[in-house]
Amino acid sequence: MTIMGTPRLRKEDPKLLTGEGKFVDDIHAPGELWMGMVRSPYAHAKIVSVDTAEAAAHSGVHAVYSGKDLEEMGLWIAPLPCVWPVTDDMLNPPHVPVVTEEANFVGEIVAVVLADSRYGAVDAAELVEVSYEELPAVASLDAAVTGDALAHSDLDTNKAYHWPLVPDPDALDAAFANAAHTVTGTFVQQRLIPAAMEPRGVLAVPSPHGGDITLYSSSQVPHILKVMVAATTGIPENKIRIVAPAVGGGFGAKLNINPDEILAVTLANRLGLPVRWTETRSEAAFSTHQGRGQNQTIEIAADAKGKILGVRVHLDADMGAYMRLITPGVPLLGSFLYTGVYDVPAFGFTCDGYFTNLTPTDAYRGAGRPEASYAIERAMDLLANEVGVGPDEIRRRNYLNGGEAFQDLEVASTLVFDSGHYGPNLDKALELSDYASLRAEQQRRREAGESKQLGIGLCTYVEICGLAPSRALAGLNYGAGGWEHALVRFLPTGKVEVVTGSTPHGQGHETSWSMIVADKLGVDPDDVEVLHSDTAISPLGLDTYGSRSLSVGGVAISMACDKVVEKARLIAAHQLEANPDDLEFSGGVFRVKGTPTAELPIQGIAYEAFTAHNLPDGMEPNLQEQMTFDPPNFAFPFGTHVAVVEVDEDTGGVTLVGYTAVDDCGPQVNPLIVEGQVHGGIVQGVAQALWEEAVYDEAGNCKNPSFLDYLVPSSMEVPSMVLDSTETPSTSNPLGVKGVGEAGTIGSAAAVINAVCDALSPYGVTDIEMPATPQKIWRKIQDAKGGEA
Amino acid sequence: MQIDMTVNGRAYSADVEDRTLLVHYLRDHLGLTGTNVGCDTSSCGACTVHIDGQSVKSCTVLAAQVRGADITTIEGMANDEELHPMQEAFRQCHGLQCGYCTPGMVMAATSLLSENPDPSEQEVREGLEGNLCRCTGYHNIVKSVLSVAGGQS
Ligand code: FES
Ligand code: FES
Questions:
Q1: What is the count of structural domains for chain B?
Q2: Partners of residue B126 in chain A, C-beta under 8 Å
């Protein structure tokens, strides 16, 4: 290992830096038609009539379709898929690309136009006349729970499912009965708009005589999309090719199967013409799923010293109007993490999923795990207050295995954590952030009565990634496996091609996978080409989400390389007339032990494998191997984040003035990329804590769909960050790697809110709802002062 | 409407709809798709180009408004052999991930340095306020720009 573990500049960059990168909206096909969507202005309404005549008569308009027209055309054979029916009796009202009877959220598609230009499609969509009969709308999760109105007229409840994970109810009751201390936290995980900078887009290009169709989509999941397009449209899977070209960020928002994708494919196929669409930013609040949307209650029972006896959690989760691809499973992804990094003898978790008349929710960076980490890490601070010790001390008293190193440890939520070593990780973060000095400065400001008070917040998170062992997914009722596929081939001239089923959208897989291959095969990383994201080139894959790429896909590549070396060893032994066991392989060269002159470089062997003139009897020509890796267990990265905020007591304004993170994702392939992932992840979590929220009015309208009001942070709102790492290898794969794509987001929201509450603690404030806006903070301070302001 | 302008040193003329935005003219008519569109409210800066040397969000102007202007897009920044120093700095400092905001960032950053060749970190952060990035948390973008500034001084 010489290249893995060292920072290396990215292969992807020159293209992206010069404008050569091709995103979907950059790709055109001759004769293409632009889709324009007619969207419901009501959160809940009967569709009385759709009049397409005026739009159809508009110049440049090719066709206009209502939902009924499309239904009659028989373009699909099944509704849009949900592959995670978490319980057998989960409610799952059919979600078709264009509604026919009842619109169930603002922005649901009611009709579609096809026009010959980008602007023409928008114009024509405005000319479609739809008359509606408004119905009572369920405009919030709270309203869904109350149940005064129904989100779907043909259901008699808003509750979609109840999912329990209570391994030992008696033990849990006993824990609370025997507790010296109990604390309860009730937290709101507000709805978030994922806001990848590239809006989603599609381009479907048919081949009317060949019978096949290519869909370009800004998707994280081209392989899953291919299966689902086949299952939804009835187009034979072997006639479908999906290409995810350059994809401008995903964060979970691009892992769905969307109405626009199905519409583009089916209309292009029917008309024999290319069909395209790109969402506008304001439209994305309706056309792309949102994240979070949970009300959480967490209770901790502890003994007199603050040692945890039990943790009990209940969630109400906002599904939005429909079950999208994995909507109901998102809270479950977090369920196992509500015990955090702590030794929790008794645990219970229940979740109720509810329909609302709002944009559907689904995975957003961390998907269930930031919520879990937030709840337990906020509750740990409540427990620290209750017991009267510092936030660092309460954590130390409760770490799994006393903070010492462990492997393969079963925790109360029934999972087996692969490895952990929490104590030194906390130590390092406290030292790096100069925690003691921060506390001293905090004290100084308090005593001086300064208007800008300091708050220091800790979060010691653990997350699940490496999704996932296929059998574990089966146990959760998930509709697919969690393996990843890799193929590694030497070309005759000694260059290497790697075909991967992982699908990058900013993570730098081409660079990292080249580094793994370079080390394994002893070749230059620049001689390795990584092929991905096109199902015609990479037919097998389960794509990129859940921080799975390295610990499943990267490991598959590494294991395929091992197979390549083993085959090459047999060829080398044959040609050097040696026993394969007497060959050593390093730096890309096979040598006969003890006979230094007898050697063959692997590139030479690749050529021999290509000509096949002199191979061992019965051996297949060519040097190419594949591997499908299905991990035996998840991977559990962890880390400590320390946020430092200044709260202006006069205005309620919060400034994040410092951020230190010490993450442990096991051995790192490319530390440069790891740092970048952590930086971006942290800021997304900070944004949830302080600024972002999709706000809906009582009628179910999103009041801030655009970047004017939805506050994605700019460079002005965040500081530079201080990062470091510890390294605890995973036992779940031969590289010992874990995953880091979501870690920053999973650690940061709790750290920031803990810091804000810490700053306000002299006022007796123990909680503040996210986003912690100046208004909310100012109000808390005024209330504490007796409301005289 | 008849328009003509110079883009990346090459003269173009065309007949476009009056309402055509400059960004759509560059992307859909000239095929210069390096300039991206990230929003519909002039908020994100993904579409930033230089018009007569000044950085401008190309979704905020009509193509017809810049008749006769000299436009530089991201495609005009590198020469045949090497990247522009700002592009190189983004590469060296890992200032991009998905790369969608990157062309706009590079254009805004070069124009920032032409106005203030030796900015502080705070000045860089202020100068890039109109350009949103969802991937990097800005840390390495700021580092990239400061590395060019340091290199110039
Ligand atoms: S596309 Fe121009 S500012 Fe967003
Ligand atoms: S690099 Fe992805 S938005 Fe900036």
A1: 2
A2: 715-716
